[in-house]
Amino acid sequence: MTSTQTSLAELHIPEARDYPMFVDGAWVDASSGQWSEVTTPILREHVIGRVPSSGTEDVDRAVRAAQKAFPRWRSQHFTARGRILSQIADAIDARAEELARLTALDTGNALRTQARPEVATLANLFRYFAGVAGEIKGTVLPAGDDQLQYSRQEPLGVIGCILPWNSPLMIAGFKIPAALVAGNTVVVKAAEAAPLSVLLLAEICAEHLPAGVLNVLTGSGRVAGEALVQHPDVDKISFTGSTEVGRHVAREAGGRLAHVSLELGGKNPSIVFPDVDIDDDFINQLLLSTRVHRQGQSCTAGSRLFLHQDVYDEVLDQLVNTLAGLKVGNPLAESTDMGAIINETQFASVCGFLDDGLSSTKVATVLDGSPDKLGNPDGYYMGPTVFSGADNSWRLSREEIFGPALVAIPWNDHSDVIHMANDSHYGLAAYVWTHNLDLALSTAHALETGWVQVNQGGGQMVGQSYGGYKQSGLGREVSLEGMIAGFTQTKQVNVRLRTL
User: Fold this and answer.
1) What span, in angstroms and rounded, lies between the C-alpha atoms of 226 and 259?
2) Taking a C-beta distance cutoff of 8 angstroms, is the pair 487, 155 a contact?
């Protein structure tokens, strides 16, 4: 056995293989016959598979399949669609470990801390939307004996879903079951950097859905994603990704008056008041809010730490000690707390931000997790880095780094910290830490953000409405309300009746 083979075995990396895409109930290649390589961040530039490089013709084929399947799917009784989603949820549970391991291999997210919880959330989302299938209701107006006036919530048609690479299964769970249960058919464009777990999800769904109801394409955003956004028969685009790309998606889809929802970036404040109990529970919840277990590759990461001056040093010391104790390494290992950055491009981007911070004379580096400190050159690994004594105008306090870098900013006045927290073109998430109910609620209400957590740092929960203010996006997901607003349209029907 060669040293390379030994290394692959030790890293639990399987042999590479081809992964076709799923269109109209069949596993197919791209019309061009072209394939693109998928690499794992566990081992730099190591290829773990190939996927079809779909083009405009492939997108059109998938959209036509979804159109063909739409009339029959939308006409089913809601209990039938709900039953199918429940069956898919059970099938996800049955193959949860397979999904989790492929997610860790594909994205670099650690198996124990991220990949398994992501799969559990995916199953919960299918199960939740199955449970609310019967709540897509219209209304009847009391318009007198000679009128029947009622409204219907009807599906939009063909939904184009464009997924990100950081949490592909969880975001697929935000979109696919909500669209399906409302009676829509779906064409998914998987993330170019992490398509494999979404293709496995398609394999699971294929056992339960009619052909054409769900289609999954692979390929680049510039080609396949663009073709999906511009396709005249796609009734809505549901996009999760960067704010820059989201603006482009909104312009292109809006130009043909298609429905659009966008879940974009964030630079989220985490405000710590002086009355907190600085114990293990608080530090662990604060740690969760930073999303360092996902290498900071999360749009909801609480990366701006506004620490009250009275507790600044103590909170920062304990948080840094906890961060320094995290194990960074192979995401497929059970002992790993933090996995790898997704690929070389993102790795270089985060390193650029770190270099800016490490060379600055205006802040102190209280924890240096830069790659050369780890001594693990196999994959795209870096540990948490924390900068202290920053202000809200600093570049690293304002731009979304999408890596495990935190900026600690001291504050004293409540109105000042609210102003600083809101002084951002983002408005996705925020975290508030206090035992004072008045302060907690007044702060939560004053923050210009779509999602506020108080005294907890966990992620999205099924049933909550999730989405951003300002340049963090348009629309809501994960909830009944978000599903009705995002994946249905209202038809009003007025009938004149004969009176007896």
Assistant:
1) 15
2) yes
Strands 488-496 and 147-155 come out as antiparallel
d(CA 462, CA 435): 26
pLDDT tens-digit series, residues 382-410? 999 999 999 999 999 999 999 999 999 99
Q: What is residue 457's predicted lDDT score, i.e. its pLDDT?
A: 97
Residues 6+ apart with CB under 8 A from 372: none
Q: Give residue-wise pLDDT tens across range 152-172.
A: 999 999 999 999 999 999 999
Instruction: Quote the CA–CA distance of 110 and 112 in Å, as a whole number.
Output: 6
- In angstroms, the Cα distances linking 328 to 110, 112, 173, 262, 459 are 9, 12, 27, 32, 21
What residues are labeled active site? Answer: 263, 299
C-alpha distances in angstroms, 389 versus 305, 363, 404, 416, 442? 10, 5, 18, 16, 26
Other beta carbons within 10 Å of 414? 15
284 vs 303: CA distance, rounded Å: 15
Q: Between 312-324 and 280-290, two packed helices, what is the crossing angle to 10 degrees?
A: 70
Strand partners, 136: none
> pTM (2 decimals)?
0.96
Pairing assessment for the beta strands 385-388 and 364-367 based on DSSP bridges: antiparallel
What's the length of the chain? 500
Concatenating the DSSP letter of every residue in 344-385 gives: HHHHHHHHHHHHHHHT-SSSEEEE---HHHHT--SSS----E
Q: What is the DSSP letter of 328?
A: B
DSSP codes of every residue in 310-332: TTHHHHHHHHHHHHHT--BS-TT
Helices (H), 259-311: 280-290
Tokens of 384: 């948490």
Q: Residue 215 carries which side chain, given as an amino acid letter? A: N
Contacts of 410 (CB under 8 A, 6+ apart): 306, 307, 308, 309, 312, 389
pLDDT of 359 > 50? The answer is yes
Cα–Cα distance between 398 and 391 in angstroms, integer?
Answer: 10
* Residue written as token pair 């966008």: 262
DSSP H helices in 18-77: 56-74
Question: Tokens 């963090």 map to which residue?
Answer: 472
In a 3-state reduction of DSSP, which class is residue 38?
strand
What does DSSP assign to residue 472?
G
